[in-house]
Amino acid sequence: MKRALIVIDVQESFRARPLWKEIGNPGIAEPVNRLVRLARDHGDLVVWVLHSEPGSGDVFDPDLGHVRLLEELEPPLPGEPVLRKTAHNAFTTTNLQQLLTEAGVGELWVCGIRAEQCVETTARLGSDLGYEVVFVADATTTNPIGDLGVDAIMERTQAVLRDRFARIATVAELAASPV
User: Fold this and answer.
1) What is the DSSP annotation of 46-94?
2) Global pTM?
């Protein structure tokens, strides 16, 4: 079965927010880079997704220059789509499903920033669309929300996805598993 890695919102917009100092893993680029290299080594499609809010005047407004991949990320290779979304999930406002269908993809690896928001909603919708989904926990992070800390949010997100919408894995587990 063909596979795609969907890298969701690992972008400078988040670093430009005051909340960045509270992000669960400020070094998120490192595990994402390892995952990208693994996907490329397997011949998988890598899709980069950026959240954009045109005209908002905040860090997600593309006119301000923050809607770009984190500097530490390996750059997309030719042929790797870079999509801009305006919804929480990566499907609704992009042509992601069309790209995946045309490539014959049946399995998705998802990772990124805002585990409980954009990554989770993409995993859920991907599952509903019939894809086998793997939520890559150590290549995903978030910020605290109110009284909920990062660890609680990550635990909750994995609990609600596990065995219903996605399999939960780490980069090392994926690297150790057969292609």
Assistant:
1) EEEEEE--TTS-STT-GGGT--SB-TTSPPPPTT--EEEESSSSSSTTS
2) 0.97
